[in-house]
Amino acid sequence: MSAGQRPGDHAQVPSQAQVPSHVAVIMDGNGRWAQLRGFPRQEGHRRGLEALRRTVKNAADLGIEFLTLYSFSTENWRRPATEVSFLMGLLRRFVEKDLAELDASNVRVRIIGGRSDLAPDLRMLVEHAEAMTRDNTGMTLVIAFNYGSRDEITRVARQLAADAAAGRIAPDAIDEAAISARLDTAEMPDPQLVIRTSGETRISNFLLWQAAYAEFVFTPVLWPDFDRAALEEALAEYRRRERRFGGLSEPTDRSVGAA
Ligand code: IPE
Ligand code: IPE
Ligand code: MG
Predict the structure, then answer these.
(1) I want to staple 198 with a disulfide (CB 3.0 to 4.6 A). Which of 20, 28, 91, 163 is the partner?
(2) What's the 204 CA to ligand 3 centre distance in angstroms?
(3) pLDDT at site 249
(4) Which residues form a coiled coil (predicted)?
């Protein structure tokens, strides 16, 4: 490591050109993983947390700069109260137990999603995790908790309306950048790759604005089984994709112009 470098600094990682800077994951299939084995759903969530820890290490290792993990959606409140409180407890324990190690690994932690519905102690933990790791320079780990895109965009709309009503912003000044800057993901690049495990092929209210041009990779692997090979396979699939952003791929440009 050269002078001034810290563990996990991106300059250390070779061949990162082919690795997307921001990978987001819809971690799905914990319940089915447990059901297949005759375990209670909670066991699936526990094993899911192990997969999360593994994935954080693997992603940092592979040179991913931002890793966003969908942990609890605004719709997940519809689950039985016992499951909801188990999932809350899991986040609490994750922050309490893993924060020191994440910090030592130079990981910056951010939590996106609505904060006002969280228990006060959980909110304080989350704020503490962010404050403690704010100046770290390695991978940014973004936990989407009580997150829903519609909720996030609605909060932005409310804030912009209040600013406009108070004369702090002119309606004409509301552009895409003004919206992006007020999303929970402000100052983060959009994800180039969104992975969903467990074979489901829907977005479930995740990063609707930010993933406008993301590549989606759906894998049948259930989240507790997601490992290094599964992550590398998703990255390989991403590299095979052609991203066009509404334009044309290079070789066909001229044929269209001539038509
Ligand atoms: C993902 O696993 C974890 C959360 C949504 C919190 P699920 O709990 O959705 O697992 P399945 O979809 O029932 O298998
Ligand atoms: C999406 O999974 C939310 C998370 C992974 C946290 P769900 O299991 O809640 O999604 P649906 O209900 O199958 O769409
Ligand atoms: Mg599910």
Answers:
(1) 28
(2) 9
(3) 84
(4) none
d(CA 23, CA 68): 6
DSSP state of 11: G
Q: How far is the CA of 30 from the centre of ligand 1 (A)?
A: 5
How far apart CA 17 and CA 242 sit, in angstroms, is: 15
List phi, psi (to 5°) of 98. -100, -10
CB 64 within 8 A of CB 21: yes
Positive or negative: CA dihedral 179, 180, 184, 190: positive
In the annotation, is 76 catalytic? yes
Residue of 9, 58, 61, 76 marked active site: 76
Q: Which ligand minimizes its atom distance to the CA of 223?
A: 1
Which tokens belong to 5?
A: 């470098």
What is the domain partition of the chain in residue ranges?
A: 19-148+190-240
Amino acid at 232: E
The answer on whether 83 is annotated among ligand-binding residues is no
Is residue 101 marked as binding? no
Q: Is 247 assigned a ligand-binding role in the annotation?
A: no
206, 154, 203: which is closest to 183 by C-alpha? Answer: 154
Cα distance between residue 21 and residue 63, in whole Å: 8
d(CA 231, CA 23): 10
pLDDT, position 2: 55
HSE-CB at 87 with a 13 A cutoff on CA atoms is 24
Which atom of ligand 2 lies closest to the CA of 75?
A: 9
| Confidence at residue 243, expressed as pLDDT on a 0 to 100 scale | 87
Domain 19-148+190-240 sits in CATH at 3.40.1180.10
- Helix (H) or strand (E) run with residue 45 in it: helix 41-61
